[in-house]
Amino acid sequence: MSERIGVYVCHCGTNIAGVVNVAEVSQWAGEKLAESGVVVSRDYKFMCSSLGQELIQKDIKEMGLTRVVVAACSPHLHEATFRNACKGAGLNPYLCELVSIREQDSWVHTDKVAATEKAKAIISGGVARVTYHEPLEPLHVPIHPDTLVVGGGIAGIQAALEIADAGFHVYLVEREPSIGGHMAQFDKTFPTLDCSACILTPKMVQVGNHPNITLLTWSEVTKVDGYVGNFEVTIKKRARFINEDLCTGCGICQEKCPKKVIDDVFEAGLDTRKVVYTPFPQAVPNYPVLDAPNCTFFLKGTCKACEKFCPTGAIDFNQKDEDITVQVGNIILATGFDLFDARRIPQYGYGRLANVYTSLEFERLCNASGPTGGNIVLRDGKTAPKSVGIVHCVGSRDQNYNPYCSAICCMQSLKFAHLVHERTGAEVYNFYIDIRTPSKGYEEFYQRLLEEGTHFVRGKVAEVTDAARQSGEDGKLIIQVEDTLIGKQRRIPVDMVILSAGLEARHDAKEVGKLFGIACSADSWYIERHPKLDPVATMTEGIFIAGCAQGPKDIPASVVQGAAASARVMGKIQQKEVSLEPVRATVDQDRCSGCRICNNLCPFSAILFHEDTMVSEVNPALCQGCGTCVAACPAGAISGTGFSDEQILAQIEGLLLLNVKHLELVPG
Amino acid sequence: MKPYAYFPGCSLESLAKSYHLSAIEVAQELGVELKEIEDWNCCGATAYFPVDELLAYTLVARNLAIAEKEGFLDFVAPCSGCYKNAYFTNAYLQKDQDLAEHINYALEADNLHFEGTMRVRHLIEVFIDDVGLDEIEKKVSHPLKGLRVAPYYGCQLVRPRKDDEDVENPQFFEGLLSAIGAEPVEYASKTRCCGGSLIITNRKAALDMVHKLLKDAAYSHTDVIATTCPMCNVNLEVYQNQVNQEFGTNFSIPVMYFTQIMGMALGIQPGRLGIGKELVYGATLRNM
Amino acid sequence: MTAELSFSKEINNLMYASHGKPIKDCLQCGVCSGTCPAVEFMDHSPRELIGMIGADLKGDVLASNTFWSCASCFHCTVRCPAGIDIADMMYALKRYSIWKGQYQEGLIGPDFSEGFVKMIVNSGRSFEPILAVTYLPKFSARDLIQEAITATGLVLKGQMPLLPKKIKRLKNFQQMVRRIIPIGGTS
Amino acid sequence: MTETFEPVIIGFTCNWCSYRAADMAGTARMKYPPNIRLIRLMCSGRLDPTFVLKAFASGADAVLITGCHPGDCHYVEQNYKALRRFQLLKRVLTQMGIEPQRLKLVWASAAEGAKLAEAITEHTEEIRALGPLNWPTGPNGFEQNKPEEMVVQEVTA
What we know:
The structure holds 4 protein chains of 4 kinds.
Chain A: E1 5-10, H1 22-32, E2 38-44, H2 50-63, E3 67-72, H3 75-88, E4 96-100, H4 102-106, H5 112-130, E5 139-142, E6 147-150, H6 154-165, E7 170-173, E8 188-189, E9 194-195, H7 196-209, E10 213-216, E11 219-227, E12 230-237, H8 252-256, E13 260-262, E14 272-274, E15 276-277, E16 289-290, H9 296-300, H10 305-309, E17 322-328, E18 330-333, E19 337-339, E20 356-358, H11 359-365, E21 387-394, H12 409-424, E22 427-432, H13 442-452, E23 455-458, E24 463-465, E25 477-483, E26 488-494, E27 496-501, E28 503-505, H14 509-516, E29 543-545, H15 555-575, E30 577-580, E31 585-587, H16 597-601, E32 607-610, E33 615-618, H17 628-632, E34 638-640, H18 645-665
Parallel strand pairs in A: 1-2, 1-3, 3-4, 6-7, 6-18, 7-10, 18-29, 20-27, 21-22, 21-27, 22-23
Antiparallel strand pairs in A: 5-30, 8-9, 11-12, 12-17, 13-14, 15-16, 19-28, 24-25, 25-26, 31-34, 32-33
Chain B: E1 4-6, H1 17-29, E2 34-36, H2 53-69, E3 74-77, H3 80-95, H4 97-108, E4 119-122, H5 123-131, H6 133-139, E5 148-151, H7 172-179, E6 183-184, H8 198-201, H9 203-219, E7 224-227, H10 230-238, H11 240-247, E8 255-257, H12 258-265, H13 283-286
Parallel strand pairs in B: 1-2, 1-3, 3-4, 5-6, 5-7, 7-8
Chain C: H1 7-14, H2 31-35, H3 46-54, H4 58-63, H5 75-79, H6 86-100, H7 109-123, H8 128-135, H9 141-156, H10 170-184
Helix pairs in contact in C: 7-8
């Protein structure tokens, strides 16, 4: 064996040495693994300390080591440390292998003998593997300074503004006619109860006027090519039938349009809007959208009232959808959430019993700019409720619907309770399983509600019915529930029921995820790179997530994530270029039979097929290094850098070295 | 249409004769061939699982195995209880090999073997899914104009949940009733329990449940309650008087099997539908 | 492998073919109790009973009439947010208490179930009049009269046959039953 | 020797989930038998069936494949490919006269250290009960001394 390998066994204080006989291990490696190329084997108290690193560097220089195996903690902790140490001594960092005898050995086993034997096996595996390592260089890719933000809710707005203010250009794409997202629909925000619009609209205006922001509303991303630093994104700008250069946003068209339709989006179905409309007065941009499928002119060929009255001739019935292509270096997905459809729980009567409302409907109902001007009244439009029941966990924490907690419902329900109490003086009942208020000022808000005399009934509501069984129930909605704290069945008659519906991932989250090449959890929330230490990055370099797209969260948390994602993006932009781990697949052109089996296996479409030469090739910048194609190639033509067949097979043999010997000894 | 393996169940031989009669008549009218399987045994009802689960499965498996042996594809039960037991036993045995082994060991004693090839259906499913509402509508000769019928699903027809069916507010029964020209009644407790065998083991509780049901039905102006299960029918009809005594009410809501009501719409002569054997007989019906 | 199985474990094991989640997943939300049509007639609500099982209060659980008041309507099962098959748990408890011969005095449920089983084992079919013998003795005088009235009413209306039916291959059938009982372990 | 028989198990882990789960088990000082020896791959999708056969050929008594839960794969969907290969492998092993239960697949997310530890313990016990892997010999088996051939045969098959 031509390689000269150094083995370094770490005590990690007593973390390892307490269970594994480190000295014995290192001596064993020095003797028994000599035939595999080990020329030196040492143990040391703390290998990661500067002294420990110098020990390795000294040997590299003086003994001309060509490979290094460190047996210590998990590579996820100190791989970088030891690789840099080797680099410092002139050895290619990728010729160093860190094997874990702490997390995988000393910390999980008690039998010292067995643990020591296992440590030997692990090291012999590392030695066998490292022999086949090859010197590698990290890949360097330039970063385009522009950024794409998808979704104009509060998270997207925050992210866009942070980046734009830092002097970089941002494309902000929003599906709806205006930015603002769900927050624009709310009346008050918990726990401070400040007016949602008052704090949101200034930010929306900033976005609208910002020189560094290109705002594309009524638009959707249809195609994403390229890779970190160099994405090419195609955006479909749907026809608005309004000439944006001419439109002054005066609103006359909206006023004159003779046709009304139910507004299912912004007013949550509680009110109507015109066919030419801006969803709400403070909309950004303030020029309207013409909803063609409902437009009398498009349906019957006559009307054109809007066109007649438009003072600037901005109406353009011939406008077509257009595709815009932009180059960006990074992408932030802030696509938000959908509200759980309360119809899926028939026993709660939504859609069947008039005075059962969803949370979003109620937000509009108590919103000063909403259909009732903020008067909390029943569907008849005049009667104020004398009693209101608020049902928590609707569609959340329920195996039949969504198993997760939607995080915002408790506080939202408390807010509703307060508003009802404040504006109508009605008796309010909250039906909860657990009250969760784990954030600054939240528990205090709960206290406040208790003081206001809101009734709290601990029990999941069984059903809401209008079938009166006892006196006092006629004409009421009866909430059937077990009050679990007193162990009694209760039927509570109320005038209005509010269902605190949970949050769900966007109905098209999976497709969108595929479009951008990022993964969804089973619940269709986008998966972050690390739940704690890398919460806004994804497994795809250059693509970040913020807000409810990543999971249910409230406004403060969404803003934080928007800012965090923008910080990550600006960090990347400042680097001017990214260096990528060289864990990549490469195709040996001569051995490739052109069978194309690998082509469809790659989720990142990193493998392209050359029709002319009839061979496949891997684009190193697109490849994420999962190695699936390597495993699948029937010709063995694809090799995975850093995880090659030779390396793995050698490691297997190495790991079993001891064992094989053992088999030889024991007959049978 | 292929013939169906017909499993009447014990009640249809005694308490629910009229269900048996009307089911056969209506099926014939709609060209559905129901072939009673040979030498079937009791399905175990709800009283059986409390004693021995395996034995309960065996009882049901025997009937399924007989139907399999006779080469049927669909196993049809008019009784919701039988249906539920058959459906889930079939499903469990298909999933659980060990369980199936136990059971098959027992079945050998009767030279039978459970394969799991049956599709278990309730009679109403067969009419709605296989015959189809349009077909039924075509065959209606006496549409039940203005007759307010309360569809009573009860429990075992829709519960426990199979796949993703709506177990809280199903609609298929309403569809069937509209198809025969009747007016389906919207009422609160169409999937609420009738008390089942509690009528025997816990009379007070059962009567209370029946009372609530009748109350809800009456509240929504019901001419007749349509049932899909002998147990429900007996509880709602036969014990109506006891409810009246118990709660000082005076309900007299006729209760009929959905097949009897279908039969009337299809112009089958009432006698042949077992009509006239009810204890409660509503004015509306008499005038029909 | 432990010698003594806890009561809650025993019940879990008894839910043989139940495809629901284990009882310990219970959130104590009470949706089962709120849904149960018979809950007013139970000395402990289903939720309480689940809690008691979790706390291994074997005696109190077996003394309860809750599971004997269950009509097996499965409404709780389909609504349980924890995916527990509560109705099936009630069956499990019935089996357990019959096997242990421990249940509240004066209940009709146990006798009824066993009577039902015996009858089917004897005839292969169930038949109301014979069945009555097993449970009528426990009826109050008032109920008895009621029952008589209803019954005669039924007979007059020709809804109640007077002779029981038996299946043809009764021998095989009983043979079959005998093959299972040792596995199930009924008395 | 079956009393004292200690199997050797090779475990393949995914860098993003199960390997981190193993780290977590360590950090939390959870205990499991020392019979398992882990190999880190970037993804369970990297698992070449050859690796498993190689492990058996080189003296492993069992193999444990671990990866991200379906739907959670860090490379979108590669764990599904691992699942397919696992099923294929089980068949191949049976044909080779190796008890298929020697090969096991477990999904363990980065947060499921406990689950992984449990799975390892379980598998170890199963294999302890099963006894050492004895290469079948005779007409339809393979010669103990040349497992490599078999590997080649089976992979191209």
